[in-house]
From TrEMBL:
Protein name in the entry: SANT domain-containing protein
Gene Ontology CC: histone deacetylase complex; transcription regulator complex
SANT domain boundaries: 8-59
Subcellular localization(s) per the UniProt record: Nucleus
Region of interest (Disordered), ranges: 63-109
Source organism of the structure: Cuerna arida
Amino acid sequence: CDLANFTPFPDEWTVEDKVLFEQAYQFHGKSFHRIRQMLPDKTIATLVKYYYSWKKTRSRTSLMDRQARKMAGRGGAGEDGAGSDMASDMGSNSDSDNEEKKEGGEGRNLSCSNCSVACSHVQSTPKGSMCNTCYTHWRRTGNLRPTVGPTKPRDRQLLLRNKRKPPRGMYVNHDDLVAMASGPTGQGEQMLKAMDREIVSLKRQVQNNKQVLSSL
């Protein structure tokens, strides 16, 4: 084996890689360049792609905790062992669901009262709950942050009709927009490319599933 020229495949995620990612995310948030310092064999695009897949299933229960619970649940062999594993997994999933609900009370399914963009955290003000961007503008100026540019009189009716409604199927998240806008040069483009690749992959999966169903 030519170890000198060996390069690990960046899309392969070991348990150690996943644990390191969780730890790095807790320290650095969405700063993928800093996360990459702990996972130097991963590209920024790979980290972004993994982040969005991990974000869908993540909970306060870390990967290390889930692994420990699985090991603790293996108290016997055969059917007893299988029952212990199943009970452990169900308990872990139940705990995760409860913790997700608690977390949801703090920051999920929230939106800014000014710009109406979904966000994970809002600031309470006399003007309503605001995202960090609108809150900072209000604290600095005392006025609500403008969310649209100057409009001509003939455009006002159209503006009111489509006010604050993104295209059908599009969901805007304030935290993701901030990560794209405030990150290093090229980070936003890498995030979009990663999402494009994910869409292509999901479309292929749908096509494969259709072929399997048609052959049954």
